TrEMBL record:
<protein>
    <submittedName>
        <fullName>Stp1/IreP family PP2C-type Ser/Thr phosphatase</fullName>
    </submittedName>
</protein>
<dbReference type="InterPro" id="IPR001932">
    <property type="entry name" value="PPM-type_phosphatase-like_dom"/>
</dbReference>
<feature type="domain" description="PPM-type phosphatase">
    <location>
        <begin position="2"/>
        <end position="244"/>
    </location>
</feature>
<dbReference type="InterPro" id="IPR015655">
    <property type="entry name" value="PP2C"/>
</dbReference>
<dbReference type="Pfam" id="PF13672">
    <property type="entry name" value="PP2C_2"/>
</dbReference>
<dbReference type="GO" id="GO:0004722">
    <property type="term" value="F:protein serine/threonine phosphatase activity"/>
</dbReference>
<dbReference type="InterPro" id="IPR036457">
    <property type="entry name" value="PPM-type-like_dom_sf"/>
</dbReference>
């Protein structure tokens, strides 16, 4: 599997509160993680850093047998995410400058072509093939509740003034529940993990147009960030772009 990682402060923010990493074990298992921190007197970077660091450390120490099945990977992720959530929550209570902080989280455990995805907040995972693009995750947001209740349409949700008000974040409450998704990548497909600094600016079709260009993988990641900045760059912009295609090394 080949990957590229990008994280940019954008044009309007003074600090980058996103954290993003790709971690490989000596065996076949890999972990892609992205966290978009928020709140607590600019302590969002503390929450996102705590989440990413703890997940990577636990992943490198996990027993291979636990990670060998889809159910095992989900159960492992549930347990470690629950523990990290408690740690961030208690840290926020005991450090004045961190009160109210939290973070979104995307964690993708990879076993060959099989991806186990854990999701909290409004960071996203997309899957692209040469023919199609698809949003895999569903934001834990206020506007999605309105859509589900039939109060607004999907199109209206894209421009709603409370579009970025999220209902679920790591570390803001004592307990948390992640949503889980399973995906099998194909030889010609791409997995895009991104913060809302990218997804708020680029449509699915704009992302697909760049990802399917005949460019090196790193150039594709850079062009995605560049376009998000050209369209305003209102937030931090972070992504991990993954593919099985060997020619993209």
């Amino acid at each position: 599997m080949n990957f590229t990682v990008e994280s940019d402060v954008g044009l309007k923010r003074s600090e980058n509160e996103d954290r993003v990493a790709f971690c490989e074990r000596p065996d076949k298992y890999k972990l892609a993680v992205l966290a978009d921190g928020m709140g607590g007197h600019n302590a969002g970077d503390v929450a996102s850093e705590m989440a990413i660091t703890a997940l990577q450390r636990a992943f490198l120490q996990a027993e291979a047998a636990i990670l060998s099945t889809e159910d095992g990977r989900q159960q492992w992720l549930k347990g470690i995410i629950s523990q990290i959530n408690e740690d961030i929550y208690h840290y926020s209570l005991s450090h004045e400058g961190c009160k109210g902080m939290g973070t979104t989280l995307i964690a993708v455990m990879i076993d060959g072509a099989n991806c186990t995805i854990a999701h909290i907040g409004d960071s996203r995972v997309y899957h692209f093939t040469t023919e199609d693009g698809e949003l895999i995750t569903r934001d834990h947001s206020y506007v999605n509740v309105l859509v589900d209740n039939g109060e607004i349409s999907e199109e209206e949700a894209q421009h709603h003034p409370q579009k970025n008000f999220i209902l679920r974040a790591l570390g803001t409450e004592l307990t948390i529940q992640a949503d889980f998704y399973s995906l099998e990548m194909q030889e010609d497909s791409y997995l895009l993990i991104c913060s809302d600094g990218l997804s708020d600016k680029l449509s699915l079709y704009e992302m697909a147009a760049i990802i399917t260009l005949p460019l090196a993988l790193q150039e594709k990641g850079q062009k995605l960030v560049q376009l998000a900045n050209e369209l305003g760059g209102d937030d931090n912009i972070s992504l991990i772009l993954l593919t099985l295609k060997g020619k993209e090394v």
